[in-house]
Amino acid sequence: MDTSVCLRPATDADAASIAALLGKTFYSQGLWSYCVPFVQLAIYTDLFLRMQTSSDDTYQCWVAETTARPAAPWFMPRRSIVGTIEIALKSCPWGSQALTVPWQSPMGRTPQIPVAYISNLAVEPPYRHQGIGQALLHQCERQTRQWNHSVVYLHVKSENYSALSLYRKLGYREPSAITLGDTLPPQRTLLAKQVKSKTGETDCQVSV
User: Across the strands, what pairs with 122?
Assistant: First the structure.
């Protein structure tokens, strides 16, 4: 199908679609699959509250939206959210430990508090491996620079090899062996990337 995918800031009206996407992405396996409707409701409530109470100076949610071609039947949605990501300024989400990132001196230092932190990156399965996740990450990196931060952080499940491959391809590295302190699998790996200003950057549009 010939589509064009564009990024835009999420609105309150997108909360239900984003919650559905996150629920399917992160909670559709194993026993969680029986609880997806309840999980989606919890995600929706939490997300809607964040959108209502956060300012653009500390929080952003972005979506990737596809527009159906004009010949699509009238009953099909003209637009569909196929990807999402969030970024926020947070106090160290992984605890108070000092971090050593690869581009710092071996002695390391505690990162600036609060830090730019990416979460809830998700892309609909039919639209994966087409650059949408990469475009969403680049948008968050631009936002990090606009907030005058030079490093952005995220966590990823250690067994999510496809996500780890994407992040490492884009320059994300483990700043230390720190995880969130999980005592049961899946463990989560902390990754960080140093972002630099680039001239001539524009908002992303991904042709699919």
Answer: 84
Task: Please say if the pLDDT value at position 194 is more than 80.
Answer: yes
Closest CA to 188 of 161, 160, 158, 159: 158
How far is the first Cα of the chain from the last one, in angstroms, to the nearest whole number? Answer: 9
Rounded Cα–Cα distance for residues 137 and 17 (Å): 20
Nearest Cα residue to 124 out of 158, 78, 83, 73: 83
> What is the C-alpha to C-alpha distance for residues 35 and 33, in angstroms, rounded to an integer?
5
Kindly tell me the burial class for residue 147, based on how many C-beta atoms sit within 10 Å of its own C-beta (0-12, 13-18, 19 or more). middle
Q: Residue 101 in contact with residue 107, Cβ under 8 Å?
A: no
Residues 206, 82: Cα–Cα separation, whole Å: 12
Encode pLDDT of 109-145 as tens digits.
444 468 999 999 999 999 999 999 999 999 999 999 9
Q: What does the alpha-carbon distance between residue 178 and residue 197 come to, in Å, rounded to a whole number?
A: 28
Q: What proportions of the chain, in percent to the nearest 5, are helix, strand and coil?
A: 30, 25, 40
Q: What is the mean pLDDT of the chain?
A: 79
CATH class given for the domain over 4-207: alpha beta
Is this structure's pTM higher than 0.70? yes
| Main-chain dihedrals φ then ψ at residue 205, nearest 5 degrees | -135, 125
Type of residue numbered 10: A
**Cβ-contact 179, 94 below 8 angstroms:** yes
